[in-house]
Amino acid sequence: MKPHHLTISPNSTRSFTAKREILPDINSWWHYHEEIELIYFKKGSGTQFVGDNIRNFKSGDVVLVGSNLPHYWQFSERDKESEIEVYVVHFNKNFWGKDFLYLPENLEISRVIEKSKRGIQIEDNFDNCLTKSIIQVIESQGPKKIINLIEVLLEISKCMKAQILVSLGFRANFQESERDRMQAIYNYTLKNYSQKISLDKIANEAKMSRTSFCKFFKLRTGKTYSEFVNEIRIGNACKMLIEKRMTVKEICFESGFLNFSSFHQCFKEITGQTPLKYQKSYN
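^ thats the sequence. predicted structure below, dont judge the formating
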């Protein structure tokens, strides 16, 4: 998928943007921007794409996405039909002055911004100091707005359950021709992951030979295409397990797996849990 460069509209009365969103189709494509993005999903769930990482997101999750790191949140069909509640902050690394992050007192803030280049996710945040501070960034005015953002970054820096999302080998600086190929690959995969996708078919979508495609995809993403597809399938399965509208076996086939054994093995490899144990953890 080709990441589109998104320009965050400047505002002469604000040094950074902070807003509350209730529509699930805001910036609903793979994009990137120079500003660092902080997002808190108070209400909403679906599948997230950050760099080469694919996983489900849900209410209570907080994500910090670094400058020019491609990302995209695809809300579930259920959420597309209802109102969501998401808090989003965009800020330039040096909006507070180019020397601010080099002050010795700001070492922890500097470190968390550096880590954000690979994306940071913190799950299951409900009415804690982190989420309250994020909401205050949006609602406050004047110097308090900046102070609250600093508080958020400090909370993230000391959070023990923060997860790094993107692999070390991920390349965000694709050439234009590579972006077009990645766009074709992502688009086709997202539409057809619930079916069997042959290497010949996806290579044809990318306008490459099968051998060239395998080398290209592994070099650009750090993973094989089958690993990539399985991550999407398991991300979809996680979402359906939480929703509890189908049995585990039904979810297995709905997600694109041809047998329960391979689904069970793949699910455990990616999540570290069996499907049933994962589902029970959300009871």
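The chain has a mean pLDDT of 87.
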